[in-house]
Amino acid sequence: MNLQLALLERAAGENRLAHLLLFHGGSALHQREVALRLAQILNCNQPTPEGPCQECSPCHKIISGNHPDVLWLRPLKTTIGIEQVLAWQSKVYLKHYEGNYKVSVIEQADLVTLPAANALLKVIEEPPERTIIILSAQNAEGILPTIQSRAQLIYFPNLSQEAWLSGLREVDQQEAIQAFLLSGKNQNLATAILEHGLPSLQEWVGKFRTAVEERDFLKLFSLFPIDKNQAVLYLQVMAVQTQEGIQKGTRRPFELLAIGQALDVLRQQVNPRLVLEVLALELFQQGGALCD
Ligand SMILES: [Zn+2]
């Protein structure tokens, strides 16, 4: 464990944790594990010098996701909207059911919409008693500065390829290495690629690129339907490839801009097909993509 996390655990054990923490960097999975452990430290009935006992009722309930004072807020679709934050807010101010501390973990907090972030800010400004809010995000820059400035930032370093691979079970090593490279060494993205299936992802992205290069709408139409999560994943992979292509001089910056905008729109809009067709059209009009 790194020093920062060790200090965080000690602060939790001594009940002097900041009431707003912002986890950023590293893997979402690692952030979730640390959040769970902090919730346990704050609520364990018989903590040991090594940390929570893992045997008492609060420890069990927290690890199984059944502790009434530990709340999770996650994007329902591609954003965390105002309704979700308001529903959460009404629970945050209720009295503690059984724990010493309430812990709220907001996962993928960089997907909170602006109105939702403003509602969140109100809670942060009037913090409920004995409550820790943990924002978990890939990039701290994705968090509203007024929220960021009130939080204690905890940085999770990226794992190496070897460390990421050693944490995976029952996967094809070659496929995992390819997924890691395709993700631009972003382990969250690499994990999502593996979960989706590498071959079908490569096939879809390859066909999309071909359709754009040949300006062939029929080829493009044959790529649908796909769901929104798939579309987000494909665009993330295309963004990484394009970024690397720009560095090599084989792709142009406007492509990355167009893909980034498509991702932004997709996170707010329901229709992935429409977003991807608009993107393809934009790439056509800009003279098509250069070949790798
Ligand atoms: Zn315990």
Which regions contain 5 or more consecutive residues with pLDDT less than 50?
288-292
Number of domains: 2
Distance between the termini: 41 Å
* Distinct bound molecules: zinc ion
Instruction: Give me the side-by-side strand order of the main sheet.
Output: 2-3-4-1-5
Count of distinct strands = 5
- Helix count, DSSP H or I runs of 4 or more residues: 14
Helix content: 40-55%
Task: Summarize the topology.
Blueprint lengths: L2 H11 L6 E5 L3 H16 L13 H7 L6 E4 L8 H11 L9 E5 L7 H12 L5 E7 L7 H4 L3 E4 L5 H6 L6 H10 L4 H10 L1 H16 L3 H5 L6 H21 L4 H16 L3 H14 L7
Parallel strand pairs: 1-4, 1-5, 2-3, 3-4
Helix pairs in contact: 1-2, 2-3, 4-5, 8-9, 9-12, 10-14, 12-13, 13-14
This protein binds zinc ion.
Zinc ion (ZN) binds next to helix 3.
Describe this protein with a few key phrases.
single chain; 292 residues; alpha/beta; Rossmann fold; 5-stranded parallel beta sheet; 5 strands; 9% strand; disordered C terminus; binds zinc ion
